[in-house]
Design goal:
The complex is a heterodimer of chains A (about 160) and B (about 190). Chain A has about 160 residues and is mainly β. Chain A has one helix spanning about 5-30, and strands spanning about 35, 40-45, 50-60, 60-65, 70-80, 85-95, 100-115, 120-130, 135-145. Chain B contains 1 helix and 12 strands.
Chain lengths: ~160, ~190
């Protein structure tokens, strides 16, 4: 049986480990740093095609780690694919994770649709922009202007001409 | 057997008056202890002291409510299915009636419904009330009387309730006044 020299095997394993770590780091792509200055905190979030999906802003921010920021007077605006504003969310203070796009706080959150037809308010929240999931922990209050009891569109069997 | 009630009893609920599309919609509200809003699939879930108010149409409380949205005729999302569960209590504003027999029901009167579950189906345009072993049959009550069945379905387009299974109805004497007053007078001797 042919024996592999111990030193050589250890070197190969170590090198492959370093290589894998580098590959993993390159794949993760650390988020772009937010712009901070006298005018406050600003972080535009674009998709891979460069289309603006959301804009996170705040009066000030305190970095808690490389990706986690404590933002005061937080505001987020989301946009549809065609660039039309969709939602506006505001919170007095929250934690924003730039890598996961998670926003959370034990405080208040107010979200409204840009056309004014829908608004929601709550205390204690967690929101993820990627999944579009908003969890409101307490005192949920929703207002809406669309008639929730009017018929929705009937499913069409044939496509419209 | 699937008895169908005349529209005159426990009639129309959740019917928006004709031409309402031209008027600005009133503001509805929903309060709950907790909630989850799924923006991408349009599903909402609220639980804990849920209270839904749509002025002039409905006042509903329950313990749990799930809302599934679907695009309307203009492509805008709107609730297509609302499932209210556990301790469902509804106050339903009755629209004006055109049936002369039901003049005992004043426009703007309120019918009260209780059920274990109420399912609003926007596509079918129905409201289905069901009970449970613990709560018993769903019940709808208005100034004209009371209706119970294992399953109560309100067809909004036809303004008609359908009771299925264990059907039971009571009505108040005032409802018959309009009918008895038209009885022929006894023949003169």
């Amino acid at each position: 049986m042919k024996r592999v020299p111990t030193v050589q095997l250890a070197t190969v394993l170590a090198c492959s480990g370093v290589l894998m770590a580098l590959v993993h780091r390159a794949g993760a792509q650390s988020p772009a740093a937010p712009a901070t200055g006298p005018s406050g905190f600003s972080f535009p979030y674009k998709d891979k095609d460069g289309v603006l999906k959301a804009r996170f802003t705040g009066a000030s921010s305190t970095p808690k780690s490389t990706t986690l920021h404590l933002v005061r007077q937080f505001r987020v605006e989301t946009f549809r694919q065609d660039g039309i504003p969709e939602l506006v969310g505001e919170a007095p203070e929250c934690l924003l994770d730039l890598s996961t796009k998670d926003v959370s706080s034990a405080g208040e959150l107010a979200v409204r649709r840009s056309d004014g037809q829908f608004a929601v308010h709550g205390e204690g929240f967690s929101w993820n922009h990627e999944s579009g999931r908003l969890v409101l922990s307490n005192k949920v209050h929703v207002t809406f202007r669309a008639d929730p009891f009017a018929s929705a569109a009937k499913p069409e069997i044939l496509p419209r001409p | 057997m699937k008895p169908t009630l005349l529209p005159l009893l426990l009639s129309p609920l959740l019917v928006v008056a004709a031409g309402a599309e031209d008027l600005p919609l009133p503001e509805g509200s929903l309060d709950a202890a907790h909630g989850v809003i799924e923006q991408k699939n349009g599903n909402w879930h609220f639980w804990g002291d849920v209270h839904l108010v749509y002025p002039g149409v409905l006042d509903l409380t329950c313990d749990d409510m799930q809302v599934a949205q679907a695009p309307d005729a203009n492509g805008k999302p709107r609730p297509d299915r609302i499932i209210a569960t556990t301790n469902v209590v509804m106050g339903i504003v009755l629209p004006p009636t055109t049936n002369s027999v039901t003049q005992v029901v004043k426009p703007g009167g309120i019918a009260h419904a209780t059920a274990f579950q109420a399912v609003f189906n926007g596509t079918e345009n129905t409201v289905v009330l069901t009970g449970s072993k613990e709560t018993g049959q769903p019940k709808v009550e208005n100034p004209e009387g009371t209706l119970r069945a294992d399953v109560l379905t309100f067809d909004r387009a036809k303004s008609r309730f359908t009771g299925n299974g264990g059907f039971h109805m009571t009505f108040k004497a005032e409802m018959l006044k309009g009918l008895t007053s038209k009885t022929n007078a006894p023949a003169a001797k």
